[in-house]
Amino acid sequence: MLSSKSFSIVRLNQSTRLFRRSFFNQTYINGQWVLSQTGETFKVYNPANGEEVGSVPNCNNQDAEKAIQAAYDAFQNKWSTKTGKERSVIMRKFNDLILKNKDHLAKILTTEMGKPVKEAAGEIVYGASYIEWFAEEAKRIHGDVLPVGIANRRSFVLRQPIGVCGFITPWNFPSSMILRKAGPALAAGCTIVVKPAEDTPYSCLALCDLAKEAGFPDGTFNVLTSTRSAEIGKFLCEHPLISKMSFTGSTEVGKKIMAMCASTVKKISLELGGNAPFIVFNSADVKQAVQGAMASKFRASGQTCVCANRILVQDGIYDEFVAEFTKKAKAQIVGDGQDERTHLGPVINKDQYERIIDFIDDAKKQGARIVTGGNEKKGKESGFFIQPTVVADVKLSMLVAKEEIFGPIAALIKFKTEDEAIKIANSVDVGLAGYFYSQDLSQIWRVAERLQTGMVGINEGLISSVEAPFGGIKQSGFGREGSKYGIDDYVNMKYLCMGGLKDVDRSSQ
């Protein structure tokens, strides 16, 4: 357990901070808490108040080599050799420990990332669901017996673990993005090397504490905390002992990872940027649509890849929707995520804060109507707080319509016809998630089939679920996480052809 042996949460300067313990200034490689080879560290800050949370090792390629070798040895000799049932037992224990320590993990997450602690606890439960799901799938990685056309042959297909997997994960879901990748990898028999986001390393390190207690062999789970993201990423992508890379982040970086993996022809999964359309048709239940838009837009202060980015509302209900949505947005409480009254925490850092303010200024200059919010800050001056902002009468030339916002700005666009809405929705080069609200059954089928996204929410603003495949199309990447399909990215199919079989000599019978 994460108890007094592991860490304490204490009050310092009116802010919840992590007390020092093993993972507070060390990283986790080959089952051991270690410093970086150079001894270099970097600091982690609380985005709600700018205070230092602590420091962690600033790993380089020497540390990465050590982690990869440990993962390779564990794959060869310890983890892939276990039966599916043996892996399942350890994974189930890992799941139970995560849930048992949910509140502690949520406080860590909120301290370094900023999202409200209740929302953080929800993320922990969501992430654990992938460990539970794939613990069960570990026992069901089936092969096949194939029909043959030659009498003295038999043909089979085996599904075997791909090997060492490298993960590069984002700061917006610092726990669940790791667990969503780790679940199928560990179930298949793979070992992992994780490079967590530099803003949020502690959520990853806390999971290592629980993984060790669950009984994963040393070397199965390894972490590289570092500010050298490009250097470490390149090293992982080009290393011959890494068989698979999985990345969640921007399309720009995803393209670079794809190119670097080409040198060793690695298997890769990419969950990249989005620009989700959220379409509300005249036939929609407006209150239901507003509720869905609020959930989709402002979760994690708008910092999710599947957030409603462009809210398209048909002209017949546009004014009603704007009024109802604005009322709900104004009621949101912005503040420190440790305060249980908070609905929206800060954005992650200064760069993100300034980027969002630039988006708002661009919309103003181009004639948009700021119905509520704007660049008003709330809370301590040092925190990166932005009020929920509703921008009405948005033009397609504005940044809020063209680019992924990743912040608490709702960009409202008026449209007249279904064809116009579909054209706007599909006009971008990414296709992760899309949403629409309608009570017209024929329209529901038409729009669902025409939207160019990997996932579609129909009269629903929250669509992520362990039972469903998560992933996009176009420049939002490829590969699927979760569901019965999720294991496929972590196994190789091996075809066995057994020839020269002799039939029974029936003439002598």
From TrEMBL:
| Recorded metabolic or biological pathway in which this protein acts | Amino-acid degradation; 4-aminobutanoate degradation
Keywords (alphabetical) are:
Mitochondrion, NAD, Oxidoreductase
The Gene Ontology biological process terms listed for this entry are: gamma-aminobutyric acid catabolic process
Q: Where is the Aldehyde dehydrogenase domain?
A: 33-495
Active site location: E271
Tell me which EC number(s) this protein carries. Answer: 1.2.1.24
Where does the record place it? Mitochondrion
Q: Which Gene3D superfamilies match?
A: Aldehyde Dehydrogenase, Chain A, domain 1 (3.40.605.10), Aldehyde Dehydrogenase, Chain A, domain 2 (3.40.309.10)
Per UniProt, the enzyme's principal EC class comes to oxidoreductase
Q: Where is the signal peptide?
A: none
Reaction catalysed?
A: succinate semialdehyde + NAD(+) + H2O = succinate + NADH + 2 H(+)
Query: Annotated Gene Ontology MF terms?
Result: succinate-semialdehyde dehydrogenase (NAD+) activity
InterPro entries to which the protein is assigned, alphabetical: Ald_DH/histidinol_DH, Ald_DH_C, Ald_DH_CS_CYS, Ald_DH_CS_GLU, Ald_DH_N, Aldehyde_DH_dom, Aldehyde_DH_Superfamily, Succ_semiAld_DH
User: Per its UniProt record, what Pfam families does this chain match?
Assistant: Aldedh (PF00171)
Keyword Flavoprotein assigned to the entry: answer is: no
GO (cellular component) term, any one: mitochondrion
| CDD domains for the chain | ALDH_F5_SSADH_GabD
**PROSITE patterns for this protein:** ALDEHYDE_DEHYDR_CYS (PS00070), ALDEHYDE_DEHYDR_GLU (PS00687)
Q: How does it assemble?
A: Homotetramer.
By sequence similarity, the record places it as follows:
Belongs to the aldehyde dehydrogenase family.
Which NCBIfam families does the record associate with it? Answer: SSADH (TIGR01780)
Functional note:
Catalyzes one step in the degradation of the inhibitory neurotransmitter gamma-aminobutyric acid (GABA).
- PANTHER family named in the record: SUCCINATE-SEMIALDEHYDE DEHYDROGENASE, MITOCHONDRIAL
Mind telling me what this protein is named? Succinate-semialdehyde dehydrogenase
Identify the species of origin.
Adineta ricciae
